[in-house]
Amino acid sequence: MATVFVTGATGFIGSVVCEKLLAAGHQVSGLARSDEAVAKLRAAGVSPHRGDLTDTAALAAGCRAADGVIHTAASWGPEFGSRDRTAVEAMLGALAGSDKPFLYTSGTWVMGSTGGRLAGEMFPLHPPAVVAWRPAVERMVLDTTERKVCGVVIRPAMVYGRGGGMAGRLARHEVPVAGDGGNHWSFVHVDDLADLYVLAIEKANPGSIYVAADGPPVKARDVAAAAGVTGFLPVEEARARLGPTVDCLILDQRIGSTRAGRELGWKPSRQGVLAELRGS
């Protein structure tokens, strides 16, 4: 792989993906929507590519100039779904006929509550309304084989590590725990997740889905305790504060899969979320 184009290259996941790609010997270009982002990317050894998720011409140009594409950018808000779909359509169109890999970042929230079962890639999807648009975009990516694009979907569980993700926000008391905290969350460390992206851009077959989760599912109340959070909010009060994202945070999700290990050799190795939060 000569050059990988990364959207969301300055974000929590994307910045670590860029770091791991560079360490693996790849050249990396990253989408940059501001002068600040340009400076940050250059400092990290990433070649800036000016544009944003609404600039379909810039997205297409970034894809055509690269040998592979990793889409980690997110435009949170009411237009997230429509913007994401338009951006993905533009990028897949630019890649058509190239056989280049395109990695799409989804999430395990599309799977809904897993009903006490340990769920993997074949689990039926029951997404909450806030991410109900996402399975159709996944399918668009996976159905690109006939267009000669190597479309791959990665569904991370809740991402933590380096002080970021939901665990980091809990530790900084930026978000509440909704309900009684008895529901389970599944996690993946951002460094382990970035390792998976590198393996997938190098090895994954067209049409592959990989669930990215490591370690046993953890009750939300135990994560909160490790983060020093003692007070929970009723679901409706939390929804008034955070909006429909709360419907994802109250899911009971027990996520696990060995597919990435079997097919790509992925071996998560970082400490679990509770140890991370406790500083041990």
Walkthrough of the structure:
The structure is a single chain. This protein has 280 residues and is an alpha/beta fold. The chain is 38% helix and 18% strand. The protein has 12 helices and 13 strands. The chain has helices at 12-23, 35-43, 56-64, 80-95, 134-142, 165-171, 190-203, 220-226, 235-242, 246-249, 259-264, 273-278, and strands at residues 3-7, 27-32, 47-50, 68-71, 101-105, 150-156, 158-161, 177-178, 184-185, 187-189, 208-212, 218-219, 232-233.
In short:
This protein has helices at residues 12-23, 35-43, 56-64, 80-95, 134-142, 165-171, 190-203, 220-226, 235-242, 246-249, 259-264, 273-278, and strands at 3-7, 27-32, 47-50, 68-71, 101-105, 150-156, 158-161, 177-178, 184-185, 187-189, 208-212, 218-219, 232-233. It is of the alpha/beta class and 280 residues long. The strands form four sheets. It has a seven-stranded parallel β-sheet, with helices on both faces. The protein has a two-stranded parallel ribbon with strand order 7-10.
